[in-house]
Structure formats: structure tokens, C-alpha cells
């Protein structure tokens, strides 16, 4: 037995009030009788057992005290663990992509319809089912997991709101499947407005899809990029990709604005479900560009805007310090806008160097320079919690979505000269061998540091086709002027940590609405996306602006569609026979007992004691 | 409930003509001689000097010459003396319980008790019986000296109406003191609620003294059938002691059962000692008690 609200035991203090009322009650009636002779005989004969007589005299008081105590017990919400046979689990996946904010012609928002349909399913299944609620937004979230508490499920469903982003339905369904595997008798129900979520796709196998929303026109910008023309660098070329996610053909107007000045417009026929690309050739050079698509009766205007800026070469300077630097230098020189130079360990003068990225090959300086660093087979560095290198021939395991291993075949990495390290606590392991790291990256002391254990000088690695790709990945991630490192996902409502340049002492973030937030060197800088649009991050050293970065947050798209799916009332699945421990409320029984005590007290008062 | 402020008004006993006529035709029943051969109002088994002729017998030396029947001597020349019946004087002891408990009831038990005693005293005095009275309280109270003849009726009533129901009960002590007065035994009538632990002992003492005893056990309805709810504090009218009781149905039922057991015990006790036990209620009419109940129980005839 446990208590959900033990503080409610304080209500038992009301017994003091009951006792006080008893003691302060009006004095009892005094009756003068001829003699107590017979009364004493009666009492004596009747009260052979004194405690029984006492009980009879104070029956009402005792019942009142007992009722108060039992009520206090009930208010403390006792629970007991019981082995029950639960019903098969149910996972409700609610699409919270931006399109779910659309209000259909009947005035009902799609998200409300999805909530209602989910609630109907909750009512349709048995009370013993364990229910999970998952939102499919940019990041799938589990609101409640395998609970039989219907109130908690209802609260979770009622709190679901659409996000200004795309919905990662596949990931959400994976999560739901782990909680209620349809193959094991579970139910996974998806509530979405996206028609493309057909059961033919593997991710939707066994998923009961309830499509909400009505057909509505919707055009969206899929991508927007700008670049200088190769032949005339003073002219900028803009590439806009638009798509018709609606169920009817439409004509869309696409406008691209350069900075605050020139606007170019085009009209585009977009059949239903089709995707078109437009190229705007005559854009002037500007700090930023905005593309917008318009269509009649567009149901979701939030996906009609996109922002872009010219990806100017940052002019990153890289210094490779080592005894065999040339394979690395050659690879770096293939990376656009990177200037790489090599220097021997003996010639390396830390104070005289001003590179943006250092590659230390088999060598580590006493003090890390204020720049990003790649440590290739470094010796033990206690300051960075890097232990002595060791060797091993275990097949490496790569981290999925590693920003350093993008398009790299890790099968080619192994060589006899590879070393590995205990993973530093600040680093994310990209490539591991057993419990040790062959490649890791992270941020420590304000610097982006990568630790590379495999032999960069060996011909097997340096001549591999992916070798320049690897270094391009390294440069992209280690660029100290990019405040948002590669691999960091930007999500609405979830602040992302910005990594300032090691020399920057001030950083500002300007939102699309024009608000600017300033962070000092001592403060962790964050980018909190609340509204779609372009965010500008500026980094300063003193008063000097050393870097300005435009981060385009473009909302994802989702398609309004017609209603298909299965009626929720017809759900039936085999029951699970596994018994689980479950908390069962006991307080309703105890509250009932308290009421019964009060009824008995009332009955005794009016029927037994009274001689009317 | 006791109303101590109520005081009887004198004369409180004023029977109407019809009741008086009926009383005049009644007399106290005495089933055995009590040996008081004074001139009285009732015949005795012994012969005596009354005017009532009983028989003749032959003269024997020493007989009273005045009793010789000279007419028979003239006819037969033999001396016969007249034998006359002796008339016995019956002493009637009328005992009134004057303890505080007698003041309870509606009407008060005390009022009914002395009205009944007044009627019995009237009957006794009218029958030329000797009437003696006593008030029995915590001890022996005021007494009414033995008197004979209707002329003492007024004094007897005054004696009764001077009494007040007050104080505690000491029934056996009072009876013992009364017995010690060495009055002739006779017919005794005790009117009491007997609400004392020593009531049986007092009854036994009176019976043992040789009286033909009638106990008029007077109770009131409120005492016999109490009706109250909730907790009450019962106050003893005599001693002031109290008792807290919860007036539930079970207790009241048990109380009535105890009352029944108590009166049954008293009745059996009296029966074993040849004492007439007459239960009465304070709200019964005095005429009914005297003319019917007492006659049914053989106290009056």
C-alpha cells in the first residue's frame, strides 16, 4: 500500500475539532427522578462489561472520529500494487507538423480533430489498455508512456499543439512501435493530415492511420538557394523549388526579394503533387534574400517563405603541424576557400601563428591556440583527458549522422598503424573500437577539437577517394566562424547552443522580428527559434565584427489531404497474457466506507437513541 | 417529575356525600383477634360485658351476682348467669411514607397516599376502631396517638395534611422506632413507594410485630414509564446524587423490565409474610383505590 497524497493525512487533524465539539456540546438535560434505585439496578445489570457500556455511550463520537479518520485516509489516495493482466498496449501518434494548424472549412482545426479522434479511440479501447501518446513534430516526443491513467492520457491529448515545423512521422512511428508493437498485439494509431502516409510504406506497416482534415490547396517552398554567377560574380542567381501539396492544380506566384530592394516575380502552374524549380538570374548582391510563394486559398501560409544568404568563402586558414603533413595539406587545399600550409613540429611557433584551424599530427602543443584543432594520433594530453594511445584491430563502429564521417566509407579506415583512446568526457565518439574511440569530436575550453586515431600519413588512407571528403567534413564542422556547428539540429521551441569563435568576446542573435539578444563571453549563447525566418548571429572581438552568419530556419511542409483511414470503433487486437504490477486506487472504497460510517451514525442518532 | 412548590390546601380531603356514604358502610377487615377486649365497635370471640347476649350457663361460686338471670330462676328455681359477648377494639395503624421521593408524580404520590389514608382513617374511626398514625421519613416522624371515635377525624386529617414529602428515606429505621412504641398490634396500612433498599426489611418488621399489614405500593406513571432521549443526567430527588444515562431504547426497555422485576419481588415477599400487597398509581382515583382495589385485596369490607 502506498499513498499518492500523504499530506492529506493532515485532515485527520479534524478529529480535534470533533472532540472539541463533543466537549463543548450543550450540557445534557437534567431530569429529577424519585429515586435512582431502579436506574442503578438497570445500569448495573446491563453494564456488566464497562467498556461495552462506554462504547455504547460514546458510539456517536466514535463513529464521527472514525469517519473523519477514514475520510483522511481516502484523501491520502491509498494505492496498492496488484498483479493485473493488462490489455495490449496502444500508442497514439499525433502529427503536430505545421499543417495541423489549418482550420478546415467547418471551422475545426485539424489538430483539434486529431485530438478528438485520438480521444475517441481511447474511449473505444478497454480501460486496462496501457496507452502511450507521442507527438510527431521535428523531434518526436513521448508525452505519456504505457499508462492506464485515462486522466493523464486526456491531459496529454489536450495539451498537444501544432509546431512550426515539419513532422518526423517515421521517427515517431518507430518510437510508437517500440511501445506498442503491432506484431505483438499492440495498436499503433496515427492521426495525421498527410495523405502520403500510406500503409504501403514499411514504416507504416501495421499502423492504423486516421487522416484528419479536408482537401485544401497548399503550395510550399521546398528549397531556396542563392549563388554568384560564375561568369558574372556581381550577379546572383536564385534557385527556388516549390511544390503543390494540395489535391487540386493551382497557379502560384513566386517572388524573390534581394535585401530590402529588388523583387522579381514569376508565375508558375503547379499541378497537384507536382514540384517545380524556378531560377532567378538577375538578382543583385545583397545581405539576404527572401523567397515567397502565393497561391489562391492557400491553406498553410507558414511554409510559403524561405530565406537565403550568399555562402561567401570564409577564407579559412589551416595550419598542419607535423612531420608528414603533405597528404593532409593536399586534401585541405581541395576544399573551397581553405588556405592550408604545413609546418614542422620544430618550426611551429605558437605565438606567431594566427590560423583558424590547426592540425597537430602526432604532436600536441602545451597550450592550445585560440582556434579549432584536429589532433591526429596525439600523445597523452591530461589537460584534455586524452589518455595514451593504444592499438587494436577490432572492427570499428561508426556513429550514425556523424558530421565528420558524412560520405566516408569507414571500412577503408583500418590500418595497422591505427591507435585509439579512451573517449574524453567532452567528446562525441564518431568511430569506436570496443569501448575506445578511434575518432571523436567535441567542444572543450571553447574550442572545437577533433581527435583522430587512424594513420593519416599511410597510403591506404591518404590515397582513399574519401580522404578529401573527410577533411572537407572536418573543416565544415571545425569552422570557428560558424556559430552553429554541423550536426546540430535546429528545432522550434528548443534552444540550440551556439559555439562562438574562440576569440569572440561578444555574440548577438537577431530574430526575424528584429529582436536582438546579446551574450557575453561568460554566458552560454543560444539560438531559440520561435518564429520562422532568418536569424543573424554576429560575433565581436571588442568592437570588431569578426563573423556574421545568417541561419535560415525554414519550416517543413505537410500536405493537407482528404479523409481516409479506419473507423476507430472497430479496433480489436489479441490480448496480452503477460501479467504486470499496476497501482490500483483504493481511495474510492475507503471514501465509501467513510460515507457508510456517517450513514450509520445518522441512523443511530435518529433511530436508535431517540425515543420520540 | 417532582414539584416541590406544590403544597396541598387544607382541607385537602373532602369526599362527596356518595363517597362518604360508601365509606360509612365499609370497615377494615381483621381476620384474627388481636386481644384488646376494651369496649370497641366489633365482636370478639371472647365473652365479655357488652350488651349483646350470648348464652346462659349454670351459676358457679364467684360469678358476678349481677349477671344472674332472675327470670329463669323464678321459672326453674335454678341459678343461671347470663353470658354476654365481648366487643373488641381494633387498633388501626395508618403509616405514611413522607420521604422526598413521594413528592414525585402527577399527581404526586404523596397526595394520593394521604387521601387514601384519610379515607381509611375515616372508615376506621366511623367503625369505632382505634386509629393510630405515623409519618415515616428518614426516621419516625410525627405520630398520631391512638384515638377512637369519629370526633377525632378532623385531628387525624390535620395530622395527615401537616406532613410534607421531603428528605431521605429510612423506612426500616422508622418502622423499628414505631414498633418500639409498644402500641397494640392490629391492622396496619403502609402507603409508600418503597423506593428504599430496606423496604422489605421494614415490611417484614411490621408483619413480625403482629399487624395484619396491607402495603399500598404507590408509583407514578412517569417513574414507571420514563420517556426521554439522548443523554440525560438523572438527579435523585432524595439524595441529590446523579447518574448519567443514555436514553436509548434498549436502556428504557431494560428499565421497565427492572421495574417489573422489582414489584414482582416485593409482591412475592409480601405474600410469603401474609401481607396484602396492593399496587396503585398516583393518578388513580381515590374512590377507585378505596372502594375497589382495597376491597378486592380484602383490606376493606
Structure report:
With 612 residues, chain A is α+β, with helices and mostly antiparallel strands. Chain A has five domains: 2-81 and 586-608, no CATH class; 86-215 and 560-578, von Willebrand factor, type A domain (Rossmann fold, 3-Layer(aba) Sandwich), CATH 3.40.50.410; 219-308, Immunoglobulins (Immunoglobulin-like); 316-478, Rossmann fold, CATH 3.40.50; 496-553, Immunoglobulin-like, CATH 2.60.40. Chain A contains eleven helices and 30 strands. In chain A, the strands form seven sheets. Chain A has an eight-stranded mixed sheet with strand order 17-16-18-19-23-22-21-20, covered by helices on one side. Chain A has a five-stranded mixed sheet with strand order 6-5-4-7-8, sandwiched between helices. Chain A has a four-stranded antiparallel sheet with strand order 12-11-14-15, with no helix packed on it. In chain A, a hairpin with a 2-residue loop joins strand 22 and strand 23 (447-452). The relative contact order of chain A is 0.13. Chain B has 301 residues and is an alpha/beta fold. Chain B has two domains: 17-33 and 89-296, von Willebrand factor, type A domain (Rossmann fold, 3-Layer(aba) Sandwich), CATH 3.40.50; 44-87, no CATH class. Helix content of chain B is 34%, strand content 27%. Chain B has nine helices and ten strands. Chain B has helices spanning 17-24, 70-76, 109-126, 153-162, 171-179, 199-208, 221-224, 249-272, 286-296; strands at 42-58, 80-88, 91-97, 130-136, 140-148, 187-192, 212-219, 231-236, 242-246, 276-281. A six-stranded mixed sheet of chain B has the order 5-4-3-6-7-10, sandwiched between helices. Chain B has a two-stranded antiparallel sheet with strand order 1-2. A two-stranded antiparallel sheet of chain B has the order 8-9. Chain B is elongated and about 95 Å long. Chain B starts with 16 loop residues before the first helix and ends in a 5-residue tail after the last helix. Mean pLDDT of chain B is 83; it is low at 1-11. Classes of the chains: A alpha+beta (612), B alpha/beta (301).
Amino acid at each position: 500500500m502506498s499513498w499518492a497524497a500523504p499530506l492529506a493525512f493532515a485532515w485527520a487533524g479534524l478529529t480535534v475539532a470533533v472532540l472539541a465539539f463533543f466537549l463543548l456540546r450543550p450540557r445534557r438535560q437534567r431530569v429529577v427522578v424519585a429515586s435512582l434505585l431502579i436506574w442503578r439496578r438497570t445500569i448495573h445489570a446491563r453494564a456488566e462489561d464497562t467498556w461495552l457500556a462506554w462504547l455504547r455511550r460514546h458510539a456517536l463520537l466514535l463513529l464521527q472520529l472514525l469517519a473523519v479518520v477514514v475520510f483522511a485516509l481516502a484523501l491520502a489516495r491509498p494505492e496498492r500494487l496488484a498483479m493485473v493482466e493488462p490489455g495490449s498496449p496502444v500508442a497514439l501518434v499525433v502529427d503536430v507538423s505545421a499543417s495541423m494548424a489549418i482550420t478546415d472549412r467547418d471551422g475545426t482545426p485539424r489538430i483539434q480533430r486529431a485530438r478528438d479522434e485520438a480521444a475517441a479511440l481511447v474511449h473505444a479501447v478497454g480501460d486496462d489498455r496501457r496507452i502511450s501518446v507521442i507527438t510527431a513534430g521535428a523531434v518526436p516526443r513521448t508525452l505519456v508512456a504505457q499508462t492506464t491513467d485515462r486522466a493523464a492520457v486526456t491531459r496529454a491529448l489536450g495539451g498537444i499543439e501544432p509546431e512550426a515545423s515539419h513532422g518526423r512521422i517515421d521517427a515517431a512511428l518507430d518510437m510508437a512501435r517500440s511501445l506498442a508493437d503491432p506484431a505483438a498485439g499492440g495498436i499503433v494509431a496515427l492521426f495525421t493530415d498527410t495523405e502520403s502516409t500510406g500503409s504501403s510504406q514499411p514504416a507504416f506497416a501495421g499502423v492504423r492511420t486516421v487522416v484528419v482534415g479536408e482537401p485544401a490547396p497548399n503550395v510550399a517552398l521546398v528549397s531556396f538557394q542563392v549563388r554568384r554567377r560564375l561568369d558574372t560574380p556581381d550577379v546572383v542567381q536564385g534557385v527556388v523549388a516549390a511544390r503543390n501539396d494540395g489535391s487540386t492544380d493551382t497557379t502560384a506566384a513566386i517572388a524573390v526579394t534581394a535585401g530590402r530592394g529588388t523583387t522579381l516575380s514569376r508565375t508558375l502552374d503547379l499541378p497537384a503533387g507536382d514540384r517545380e524549380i524556378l531560377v532567378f538570374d538577375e538578382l543583385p548582391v545583397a545581405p539576404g534574400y527572401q523567397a515567397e510563394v502565393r497561391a489562391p486559398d492557400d491553406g498553410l501560409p507558414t511554409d510559403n517563405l524561405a530565406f537565403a544568404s550568399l555562402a561567401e568563402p570564409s577564407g579559412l586558414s589551416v595550419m598542419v603541424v607535423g612531420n608528414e603533413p603533405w597528404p593532409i595539406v593536399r586534401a585541405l587545399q581541395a576544399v573551397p576557400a581553405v588556405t592550408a600550409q604545413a609546418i614542422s613540429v620544430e618550426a611551429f611557433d605558437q605565438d606567431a601563428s594566427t590560423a583558424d584551424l590547426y592540425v597537430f599530427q602526432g604532436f600536441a602543443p602545451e597550450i592550445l591556440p585560440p582556434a579549432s584543432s584536429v589532433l591526429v594520433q596525439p600523445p597523452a594530453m591530461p589537460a584534455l583527458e586524452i589518455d595514451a594511445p593504444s592499438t587494436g584491430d577490432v572492427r570499428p563502429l561508426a556513429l550514425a549522422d556523424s558530421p565528420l564521417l558524412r560520405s566516408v566509407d569507414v571500412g577503408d579506415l583500418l590500418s595497422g598503424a591505427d591507435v585509439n583512446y579512451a573517449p574524453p568526457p567532452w567528446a562525441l565518439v564518431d568511430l569506436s573500437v570496443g569501448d575506445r574511440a578511434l575518432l571523436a569530436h567535441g567542444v572543450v575550453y571553447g574550442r572545437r577539437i577533433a581527435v583522430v586515431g587512424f594513420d593519416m600519413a599511410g597510403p591506404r588512407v591518404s590515397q582513399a577517394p574519401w580522404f578529401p571528403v573527410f577533411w572537407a567534413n572536418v573543416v565544415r564542422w571545425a569552422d570557428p566562424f560558424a556559430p552553429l556547428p554541423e550536426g546540430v539540429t535546429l528545432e522550434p521551441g528548443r534552444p540550440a547552443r551556439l559555439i562562438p569563435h574562440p576569440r569572440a568576446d561578444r555574440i548577438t542573435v537577431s530574430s526575424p522580428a528584429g529582436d536582438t539578444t546579446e551574450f557575453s563571453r561568460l554566458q552560454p549563447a543560444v539560438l531559440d527559434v520561435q518564429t520562422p525566418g532568418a536569424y543573424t548571429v554576429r560575433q565581436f572581438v571588442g568592437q570588431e565584427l569578426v563573423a556574421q552568419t545568417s541561419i535560415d530556419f525554414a519550416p517543413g511542409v505537410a500536405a493537407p489531404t482528404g479523409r481516409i483511414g479506419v473507423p476507430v470503433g472497430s479496433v480489436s487486437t489479441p490480448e496480452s497474457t503477460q501479467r504486470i504490477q499496476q497501482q490500483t486506487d483504493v481511495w474510492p472504497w475507503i471514501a465509501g466506507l467513510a460515507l457508510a460510517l456517517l450513514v450509520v451514525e445518522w441512523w443511530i442518532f435518529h433511530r436508535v437513541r431517540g425515543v420520540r | 417529575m417532582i414539584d416541590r412548590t406544590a403544597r396541598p390546601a387544607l382541607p385537602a380531603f373532602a369526599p362527596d356525600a356518595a363517597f362518604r356514604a360508601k365509606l360509612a358502610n365499609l370497615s377494615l377487615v381483621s381476620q384474627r383477634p388481636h386481644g384488646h377486649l376494651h369496649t370497641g365497635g366489633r365482636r370478639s370471640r371472647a365473652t365479655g360485658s357488652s350488651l349483646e347476649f350470648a348464652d346462659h350457663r349454670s351459676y358457679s361460686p364467684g360469678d358476678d351476682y349481677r349477671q344472674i338471670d332472675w327470670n329463669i330462676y323464678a321459672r326453674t328455681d335454678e341459678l343461671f348467669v347470663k353470658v354476654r359477648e365481648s366487643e373488641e377494639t381494633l387498633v388501626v395503624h395508618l403509616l405514611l411514607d413522607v420521604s422526598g421521593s413521594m413528592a414525585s408524580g402527577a399527581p404526586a404520590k404523596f397526595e394520593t397516599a394521604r387521601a387514601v389514608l384519610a379515607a381509611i382513617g375515616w372508615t376506621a374511626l366511623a367503625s369505632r376502631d382505634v386509629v393510630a398514625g405515623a409519618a415515616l421519613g428518614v426516621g419516625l416522624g410525627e405520630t398520631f396517638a391512638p384515638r377512637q371515635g369519629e370526633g377525632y377525624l378532623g385531628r387525624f386529617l390535620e395530622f395527615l395534611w401537616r406532613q410534607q414529602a421531603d428528605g431521605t428515606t429510612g423506612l426500616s429505621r422508622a418502622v423499628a422506632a414505631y414498633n418500639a412504641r409498644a402500641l397494640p398490634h392490629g391492622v396496619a396500612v403502609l402507603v409508600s413507594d418503597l423506593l428504599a433498599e430496606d423496604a422489605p426489611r421494614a415490611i417484614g418488621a411490621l408483619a413480625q410485630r403482629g399487624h395484619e399489614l396491607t402495603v399500598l405500593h404507590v408509583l407514578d406513571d412517569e417513574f414507571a414509564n420514563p420517556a426521554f432521549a439522548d443523554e440525560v443526567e438523572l438527579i435523585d430527588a432524595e439524595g441529590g446524587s446523579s447518574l448519567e444515562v443514555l436514553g436509548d431504547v434498549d436502556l428504557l426497555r431494560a428499565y421497565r423490565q427492572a421495574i417489573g422485576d422489582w414489584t414482582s419481588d416485593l409482591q412475592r415477599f409480601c405474600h410469603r409474610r401474609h401481607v396484602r400487597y396492593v399496587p396503585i398509581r398516583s393518578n388513580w382515583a381515590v374512590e377507585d383505590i378505596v372502594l375497589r382495589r382495597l376491597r378486592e385485596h380484602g383490606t376493606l369490607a
